[in-house]
Amino acid sequence: MLKDKLKIIQENIRISAEKSNRDFSEIRLIAVSKTNPIRKIVECFDVGIIDFGENKAVEFRDKSEIIKEKVIWHFVGHLQRNKIKYVIKNADYIHSVESFKLAEEINKRAKQIDKVQNILFEVNTSNEDSKFGLKNYDELYELTTMCEPLQNINPVGLMTMASFTQDEKELRKSFKTLRTMRDEICNRYSSIKELSMGMTNDYTIAIEEGATMVRIGTALFGTRDVTLSWSEK
Ligand SMILES: *Cc1c(COP(=O)(O)O)cnc(C)c1O
User: Fold this and answer.
1) What mean pLDDT do residues 106-128 have?
2) Which residue, 40, 126, 169, 211, is the most exposed by fewest CB within 10 angstroms?
3) 219 CA to centre of ligand 1 in angstroms
């Protein structure tokens, strides 16, 4: 069943890539396994998924300590400075950097363990108050400039969450905003290439607009059951 779901998603990714004249291999599927138990993650790994995303720091730490498979770990949720300690050891990518204070602290923690941490800057492209992230290009420009001296972070891209809507125009607008910002900032910092955008609701559109990382939970794992914690399932 998981295999079938994965097949459908991969087929959708392929079609969207083709539509926009892109190579299928440019797009990385991140399985957002939050709230799901270890066995489900291992099940996914066994059918060929290697990238996994979590959005809660302690859950991230616990799962990434238990799982011994060679997984690439993405931290995709909002991160508070006092919780960096839970993710710094095992996160291959942190997608949600939105302030200098956070970047500075990640840099400090990474340095302590002699690591260079890949990060993405989160942008609020939908202008919803409930969403985190930088508000515009000027803020991104300023933050990247301030991060220049930080030797233990490596900015690799931008991330956004679009509105939860079926309005295709609005979704495209969000994704186009992120892409335009990436194209612009890339002229100054060529390492900032990745576009982490697209979830179950909108990943095909995100790919048409240039996504290089799609973060998919529900389409792979089904609706999240939040009545039990992941370790009780
Ligand atoms: C939960 C989550 C996702 C996945 O959402 P689905 O709609 O279940 O695919 C993607 N990105 C972030 C940041 C999330 O928190």
Assistant:
1) 97
2) 169
3) 10
**Which residues have CB under 6 Å of ligand 1?**
32, 34, 55, 76-77, 161, 199-201, 215-219
Nearest to 159 by CA among 129, 138, 182, 141: 182
Beta-strand relationship, 153-159 and 213-216: unpaired
* pLDDT band of 197, cuts 50, 70, 90: very high
Q: Return the closest-CA partner of residue 84 out of 123, 62, 110.
A: 110
- Enumerate domains of the chain plus CATH numbers: 2-220 (3.20.20.10)
Sort 144 into a burial class: Cβ within 10 Å, 0-12 / 13-18 / 19+.
middle
β 213-216/117-122 pair status: unpaired
- SS3 (DSSP) at 51: strand
CA of 106 from ligand 1 middle (Å) equals: 23
Q: How many residues does the chain have?
A: 233
The CA 229 to ligand 1 mean position distance, Å, reads 17
Kindly give the residue spans of alpha helices, DSSP state H, lying in the chain.
Answer: 2-19, 38-46, 57-66, 84-87, 100-112, 137-147, 168-185, 203-208, 218-221
Average pLDDT, the chain: 97
pTM score of the predicted model:
0.97
Confidence at residue 161, expressed as pLDDT on a 0 to 100 scale: 97
Neighbours of 115 (CB within 10 A): 15
